[in-house]
Amino acid sequence: MASASLSAISAGGSYNILEDIKNDVEIVYFPKGSVLVEQGERNPGLYYVIDGFLDVSVPLDENSTEPNVLGTIPASHGIGASDLLGAPLQKTATGSSRSGSTAGEGGKKRPPNRKSLFLTKPGGLAGYLGTVSSYRSFIDVTAKTDVYVGFLPRASIERIVDRYPLVLLTMAKRLTSLLPRLILHIDFALEWVQVNAGQVIYHQNDESDAIYIVLNGRLRAIQESEDGGVKVIGEYGQGDSVGELEVLTESTRPGTLNAIRDTELAKFPKTLFNSLALEHPGITIKISKIIATRMRALIEDPLSDQGRERTAKGVRSKGSSTVNLRTVAVLPVTAGVPVVEFSSRLINALTQIGTPNGVTSLNHTAVLNHLGRHAFSRMGKLKLSQYLADLEEKYGLVLYVADTNVKSPWTQTCISQADCILLVGVAEGSPNIGEYERFLLTTKTTARKELVLLHAERYCEPGLTRRWLRNRVWVNGSHHHIQMSFRTTAEPVHPQARRFGSALKHRVQVLQAEIQKYTSRRIRQTPLYSAETPFKVDFHRLARRLCGRSVGLVLGGGGARGLAHVGIIRALEEAGIPIDIVGGTSIGSFIGALYAWDADVVPMYGRAKKFAGRMGSMWRASYTTGHEFNRGIFKTFGNSQIEDFWLEFYCNTTNISKSRSEIHTSGYVWRYVRASMSLAGLLPPLCDEGSMLLDGGYIDNLTVQHMKSLGADVIFAVDVGSLDDNQPQAFGDSLSGFWALLNRWNPFSAFANPPTLSEIQARLAYVSSVDALERAKTTPGCRYMRPPIDAYGTLDFAKFDEICELGYQFGKQYLAELREQGVLPVMEETEEKRNLRRTMAPRRASI
């Protein structure tokens, strides 16, 4: 078949294509059980079976008995419907196939949970569809017996297609003749939709007429409430589908769907769905399973929509949008920002973290080297878009580096192709709006935008981040503090000769800067304490955030028992576990803020011990007025703001004026930490913009659900709350105060003491928090920790060293058990990589 097609193409020419590929075809032997092509990987090329049999199969769930999406099993031995079936909406990260293996090297053994679709006999082709479409394989191809195949690599086919485009048309025509009627029916009814950035696909309350599948690009669904508020329902990347529930239930659209960037969609009409459901009921079953899975996720995570949690007024929403990010653009705020060096270090961190399907970066020079100098011309735009789409399909994450001037075609391409835009600025520079940002606002992109501030030293001046964020309302994501040594001003290639006066003035300024570096108390180049691990630097933290693999730390409230948080954080540091996001309640907000401030154990320990000393002093008795308590917290944090913390931080409070929980991610630290620690009856509420704020533990004492909504993959949740006395009570329908007093003083009484009025009030206050605590324990990815601190009271701050050591020993033991089980969320460094890192480390000059 292949030779006939190629001969027909070359009949009119003087050169036969077969002569061009005869040196590329290999005769390869695969032993029985070898895997030639795995589902989810790019097809390595064409396989022509010479002798033996190839088994084409699809992976199945362990308890699944469904044949495939359409409920049919093709019986043909050539290219059938099974190439298009299986699980087109799921991709699995797999290794490369063994296209050139020999006997004894026959790749991976086929797992048992596979369902065979058909056999490819001698004279048949395998990998035809993947070669023509350049899409990842939906099937597994394994050697049923010992088999000899003729193998033509995909690179050779692409070279031939570039030279003879008619070859691709001939192969596509041959493919249509092999496809069954069902696939042709679907292909005829499916609609290929190209939408531009910002374009609306459907509006809220529209009739549901189709299911949309994202082939390339990114979509965002938003929901408008009656009071004018807007809430993001979700974002959908490559391979995701939208609208199954509405089509299946024949309901209206729950929100408005628009394109974040230029997007390609496959529109699956409702009429086609209904006709296929009648002819093939398996489709309805598959769609029902997808919907049931999503509904179950919503039930298990009811706070993901943040319906009950509100952020403080004026605070940007930081809901997670890092799921299924495929493209990230690095855009400088203004000229002179070292985005090339920043991107290089970020790529190294992403590579070490291990992005699924790998990561690659693109800059202006790389595109020109691949496509030529006409890549950005009107004629070359089509080829450029195809090239970028192929890269997004090949790699798990593509990093676009805007290293050209503001209005260049490459800068426009970076902005239009991005799912997420990192605005990189120098923290010590001017916080004014840069020329790149002004150009960004003129585009139609609605991609998530995050601010990255580069610091030469590991220190952020109080109020610095607020000055950067004040006028940047378009920064709708997080902000990151990154330490990176760099040259603030570009060194000219041929420096001009300067006069004596200007040269002397410049020299004096350099000397003043050097003197200030050693005399300033505020600047620290490195943390005072840090465990030796290569994955805890700032670039790895940003890489984990982009990959959706952040590690969160949630600290609960419990008074002096919360001092155990200090010891547990120390144990986490020594175990080499990186912490990316910190959240806390009550005393957990205080300890969490101390750690997020510097991401350093030593200053956290010293400040926490000083505060515990103040709280444990008998001479400071005016805490009920709030003045002395405020003074102690202010002396700890000063004028620092939450935005200036090195790690992302939040704390929660209970707004008793509006009867809701509030999350605080900006503002003065001491105020919201004080509000989160305000127990009713001991401290007055904190007034904030007309509302009264109390301890956040009254609604949620362990904010695991909110941490999950921020995109944390692994969460360490430390619970130090008090345990209620659950002994059965049997004092009857009425209670005598005289009997209760005698029973309390009688050590031989067999009856449990009835709770006092204050104990009843305390239990009522935390009733709603109990349900949130139980959900937190069962949240996927949550590591629930409860140190043995029940013997300590809420006000035992004088026992700081004892409680801290108890938390440290418990943390070490708990993490050691996780390490033995092999579930410790830390990347272990092999001896080979450790030696390589040592050889690449900077060395002192030898004599």
UniProtKB/TrEMBL annotation:
- PANTHER family from the entry? NEUROPATHY TARGET ESTERASE SWS (PTHR14226:SF29), NEUROPATHY TARGET ESTERASE/SWISS CHEESE D.MELANOGASTER (PTHR14226)
Q: Pinpoint motif GXGXXG by residue range.
A: 557-562
Protein name according to UniProt: Lysophospholipase NTE1
Domain Cyclic nucleotide-binding, first and last residues per copy: 18-94, 174-276
Asked if the record carries the keyword Lyase, the reply is no
Cell location:
Endoplasmic reticulum membrane
Recorded GO cellular component terms are: endoplasmic reticulum membrane
What membrane topology is annotated for this entry?
Multi-pass membrane protein
Please give one Gene Ontology molecular function term for this protein. Answer: phosphatidylcholine lysophospholipase activity
Instruction: Quote the InterPro entries the UniProt record gives.
Output: Acyl_Trfase/lysoPLipase, cNMP-bd_dom, cNMP-bd_dom_sf, LysoPLipase_patatin_CS, NTE, NTE1_P-loop_dom, PNPLA_dom, RmlC-like_jellyroll
What broad class of enzyme is this? hydrolase
Which GO biological process entries does UniProt record here? lipid catabolic process; phosphatidylcholine metabolic process
Low complexity biased stretches? 92-102
**Motif residue range(s): DGA/G:** 695-697
User: EC number(s) per UniProt?
Assistant: 3.1.1.5
**Superkingdom field:** Eukaryota
| Predominant place of localization | endoplasmic reticulum
Q: So where's the catalytic machinery, residue-wise?
A: S586, D695
Function of the molecule: Intracellular phospholipase B that catalyzes the double deacylation of phosphatidylcholine (PC) to glycerophosphocholine (GroPCho). Plays an important role in membrane lipid homeostasis. Responsible for the rapid PC turnover in response to inositol, elevated temperatures, or when choline is present in the growth medium.
Name the residue ranges of motif: GXSXG: 584-588
Name the Gene3D superfamilies on file.
Answer: Cytosolic phospholipase A2 catalytic domain, Jelly Rolls
Could you tell me which residues belong to the region Disordered? Answer: 91-116
Instruction: From the UniProt record, list the reaction(s) this protein catalyses.
Output: a 1-acyl-sn-glycero-3-phosphocholine + H2O = sn-glycerol 3-phosphocholine + a fatty acid + H(+)
Any idea which UniProt keywords this protein has?
Endoplasmic reticulum, Hydrolase, Lipid degradation, Lipid metabolism, Membrane, Repeat, Transmembrane, Transmembrane helix
List residues of the PNPLA domain. 553-708
Q: Which family does it belong to?
A: Belongs to the NTE family.
